Amino acid sequence: MNATEVRDENFITQSLSYQSNEIVLNDTIIIGASWVPEKPVTYQARSFAVANFTNPQVLTDVKESTIDVR
């Protein structure tokens, strides 16, 4: 399962979404999420794979991107 989190300038989570799918070792997948920013600041988007909802252990490195909303 993939998770995508968006944090604001205070590192507070503004959006958290999950996509359920099977990830094969060393495979590449494309993930996406819909989100509408509430204010014009710099956000940090973070994507990572988690085990499941019951035990949401992070399974991969966290990939981060910066989003500047003006």
Using brief descriptors, characterize the structure shown.
single chain, 70 residues, mainly beta, elongated
Protein described:
- With 70 residues, this protein is mainly beta.
- It has one domain.
- The protein is 0% helix and 39% strand.
- The protein has strands at residues 2-7, 13-19, 42-49, 63-68.
- A four-stranded antiparallel β-sheet has the order 2-1-3-4, with no helix packed on it.
- Strand 1 (2-7) and strand 2 (13-19) form a beta hairpin.
What would you call the quaternary organization?
A: single chain
**Largest β-sheet summary:** 4 strands, antiparallel
Strand content: 35-45%
Supply the helix-strand structural class: mainly beta
Biggest sheet strand order reads: 2-1-3-4
N- to C-terminal distance: 32 Å
| Shape assignment | elongated
Q: Spans of 5+ residues with little confidence (pLDDT < 50)?
A: none
Secondary structure tally, helices: 0
Number of strands: 4
* Helical fraction: under 10%
- SSE string: EEEE
Mean pLDDT rating = 89
Work out the radius of gyration. Answer: 13 Å
* Count of structural domains: 1
Quick rundown:
The protein has 70 residues and is mostly beta strands. 0% of the residues lie in helices and 39% in strands.
Task: Break the fold down into its secondary structure elements and pairings.
Layout: E1 2-7, E2 13-19, E3 42-49, E4 63-68
Antiparallel strand pairs: 1-2, 1-3, 3-4
